[in-house]
Amino acid sequence: MRPAPSEARVDVLTVSQLVLRASSALSAELGTVAVEGEISSFHHHFTSGHMYWTLKDRASEVRCVMFRRDAERLALPLADGAHVVVIARPVIYRARGQFQLEVSEVRPQGRGALWLQYEALKERLSAEGLFAEERKRDLPHWPRVIGLVTSSEGAALRDVCTVIRRRAPSSAVWLKAVPVQGREAAPEIARAIRWFATRREVEVLIVGRGGGSIEDLWAFNEEVVVRAIVESPIPVISAVGHETDTTLSDFAADLRAPTPSAAAEHAVPDARAIARTVVSCFRRLAAAMERQRLRRIEATLAPIKRYGFRRVRDRLREDRQRWAESVEAVPATLAGRLDARRLELRDAAAGLAARPVAGLAGARRGLERSRGLGREVARRHERVRTRADHLVERLHAASPLAILARGYAVVRGPDGGAVTDAATLEPGDGIDVRLARGRAAARVTHTEPEEVA
User: Fold this and answer.
1) What is the pLDDT of residue 179?
2) Rounded to whole angstroms, how far apart are CA atoms 446 and 24?
3) CB 253 within 8 A of CB 229
4) Could you please report the per-residue DSSP string of 304-363?
């Protein structure tokens, strides 16, 4: 008696067990196979050394992987469009449950149909002179409006706008959204290029999209797109795919950029770098003008500078000499006056002996006069000394040597002129430092110029 369907025993497998069984059955059934097809979406992972691509024919395609140990022995260069025979083992990639070929060897088998079509069209258009370097134009230095022909949903639009917003915020981007792959892509791209040609506000045109297989990029190999680029009165930058992708639009454009971001960098300058250059130029101009002004002042003051210090020293020497002569003359004057008073006292004493009372009064008066004279002499002597000291202090304070004695110094640059601004010096310049006593030679290690308000 058969059990009811609900009671039938069913083996339950995990996903990993199912994939493992299927992979084992596939390997046991097919073993190693030789498969012919055309390479597409080729990618060489330089970090791991593995190679990945899609092998296809007109009806089907299969993913292929070639690990580093086999890739290092590969003598045949692989690229999209190559027609090859791969020696591989069919497996199921356990992590994704995806059927793929683990390739151990690749043999050449000729070019694919798309590649042959690409080469034939390239040769014919090149013979017409469409790719000639002499017909290509220079890009404008700083365009105000940049035209962009690409998909409104792709990463190329985001990358171009991000770069232009960062480098030149004042520049505008006009987008003409078009499909960038498929049967209708090439006519739409050509129509957008011609539309921009009628809008003379646009100064440079970027045409491109992100990376992909040779089939994905094929619209930019179409003759209609190539001729639209050549006929455009606006300089065109082609930015199709990644750095390793090359299309016929790249040969026809005035400039080929490896990526859309690089195309935006070529289209506009870096405003911040230009601003830094302008500020630097203004600073150098201001420094040059200041140096010129100082040279004119120095030329005007040269005679004064040549004789000024000498004249101050001469005046100080003369004043010191007069003060010394005055000080030396005071004792002689006082001695003469004291001698005269002594004679008067002597005469008074002689008179006192003859006339005691009258002589005593006269002697007292003479003594008082003598004492008053001594005090007056002392006061005058003190005034003369004070005045002389004050004069010496004023002369000493006005002397440049006194300024140096307070810790200041006179610095002369490599040209011998006085240095008043650190901006006139450069690291490594030799300078002469004049101190209160002696001088010293020094070399500049760094400067800290003050900003001009």
Assistant:
1) 92
2) 74
3) yes
4) HHHHHHHHHHHHHHHHHHHHHHHHHHHHHHHHHHHHHHHHHHHHHHHHHHHSHHHHHHHH
Contact 225, 189 (CB under 8 A): yes
pLDDT at 113: 63
Positions of the chain with pLDDT lower than 50, given as ranges = 1
DSSP result, 256-298: E-SSHHHHHHHHS--HHHHHHHHHHHHHHHHHHHHHHHHHHHH
How far apart (Å, rounded) are the C-alpha atoms in residues 262 and 237? Answer: 10
φ, ψ of residue 198 to 5 degrees: the values are -85, -15
Tens digit of each residue's pLDDT (9 = 90 or more) over 275-318: 677 777 778 888 888 888 888 877 776 766 555 556 666 677 77
Residue closest to 76 by CA, chosen among 45, 109, 53, 101: 109
Can you read off the two tokens belonging to residue 432? 């002469």
Tokens of 403: 């300024």
Q: Half-sphere exposure of residue 70, counting CA atoms within 13 Å on the CB side?
A: 15
Exposed e or buried b per residue across 5-39, where buried means at least 16 C-beta atoms within 10 angstroms of its C-beta: eeeeeeeeeeeeeebeeebeeeeeeeeeeebebbb
Neighbours of 188 (CB within 10 A): 18
Question: Which residue, 23, 105, 91, 29, is CA-closest to 63?
Answer: 91
The C-alpha atoms of residue 354 and residue 352 are separated, in whole angstroms, by 5
Q: Which residues pair with 38 in a beta bridge?
A: 56, 83
The span from the CA of 130 to the CA of 305, in Å, is 74
Please name which of 71, 52, 60 lies closest in space to residue 213, comparing C-alpha atoms: 52
